[in-house]
Amino acid sequence: MLLVKTILKPSAIEGLGLFAAEPIAKGTVTWRFVEGYDPLFSQADIDALPEPARSDTLKYVYLNVEAVVYVYCLDNARFMNHADDPNTGSVTTPDDSFGYDVALRDIAAGEEMTCDYREFDADIAAKMLPAPAAR
Rounded to two decimals, what is the model's pTM? Predict the structure, then answer.
């Protein structure tokens, strides 16, 4: 669940992006998994979905390797794009396999919020496929 105010806007990175609607100070917790709000899916749940629901769901979930479940961010956090040098980072602790995200530096209002998918998504290979060539 997002813990800061955000808006969706077109992104130079990919489609829609998640943008800060207010200044966010370095160290601020920006997202945290909340049981009962962020749905969890098993591999069997994903496999049982008909197309195009399966592909659409896989685009927005991440595979938590510790819990071996897919997490679907119910709010607009699912529109946060990947960056090799992100402005948010994932933090996990031994007692919280879902962890939380923090601002790695001050984020200005209107700035796109980014994360490094490699920090938390065990299904990263599927998300980082190169874009199809234009015809």
Answer: 0.86
The pLDDT tens digits for 51-104 are 999 999 998 899 987 878 999 999 999 999 999 999 999 998 888 888 899 999
Q: Where are the beta strands (DSSP E) in the chain?
A: 6-10, 16-20, 29-32, 40-41, 61-64, 69-72, 81-82, 88-93, 96-103, 114-115
Residue 38: C-alpha distances to residues 27, 129, 131, 132, 135 (Å): 23, 25, 28, 31, 38
User: Tokens 């948010």 label which residue?
Assistant: 88
19-45 in b/e burial notation, b at 16+ Cβ within 10 A? bbeeebeeeeebbbbeeeebeebeeee
